[in-house]
Design a protein that fits this description.
Blueprint (H helix, E strand, L loop, with lengths): L6 H32 L2 E3 L6 E3 L3 H7 L2 H32 L6 H8 L1 H4 L2 H11 L6 H8 L15 H25 L4 H9 L4 H29 L3 H7 L11 H10 L4 H30 L3
Antiparallel strand pairs: 1-2
Helix pairs in contact: 1-13, 3-8, 3-10, 6-11, 8-10, 8-11, 10-13, 12-13
Amino acid sequence: MRQGPTVTHQVTGLLTIAPGLLLILALTIYPVGYSLWLSLLDKHSFFPEQRFIGLDNYVYLWSDPEFWTSLWYGVVYSVWTISLQILLGVAAALLLNESFRGRNLARGIVLFPYMIPTIVAVILWKWLLNDTYGLVNYALITSGLIRDPISWLGADLIMLSLIVVSVWQFFPFVLLAVLARLQTIPSELYEAAKVDGASAVRRFVHITLPHIKGILFVVILLRSIWMFTKFDTVWLMGEGAGAGRFIRTLPVYAYMRTLTYYQAGLGAALAVVMFGILMVSTIVYFRLFRREADIG
């Protein structure tokens, strides 16, 4: 009769994984716990003096119009960029999954935006969208579509410009994930559907979509977290532009509270609020779609 693991073996196993477990806890639990503690303090970002104020930072944020404006900008930015990335990424993946001459070259080119550094991408787009010497305005005026240059980085259009830049830079991630899944779908399914007279739309709905919904579940979750907490692209697009406050999302606002106004406690409270929003959103998302995605 086979004997189960002895107590000695169990203790040895726990001791073996203990260093890794402690490292994980130190890298995940400690930063969250310290941010929670810091959010309860009135503390300068650089000076050691601090004073315990309880939930005053959260009470202040509740009545702070700039907090609600930043939250709204973050929601608008996240929803539009994620939706457009999914649409463009899935469409491009379907196209690049077909056989045509130069397909490998096209796959390499379409991944280019995702490989270049964010600072280079933002400088490139700010140059293209410049209302004085930008190529976009030059092309529109030359083609007769507009008479006067458009201020793409002005208050009215800077959010649209930011969304365009973000979609252009990050949709290849969706493309890669979906394309990898598409290549595992047996071609016999499509051939049988064609024999039965199924149109391209029906083949997508009844064959492709059920196979890629699992990867879409993961991609939407990851992209939602990344776009809601996106800092570098938003900050660089707003940096130097007079309309930068019109794209001031929560990560940028938290950074400014911490390193511009030197309010480390308030900055930590903003970080904790963002963490809470993401936690609640993730739980709701799992409850709504986990069974349909069938990844559990």
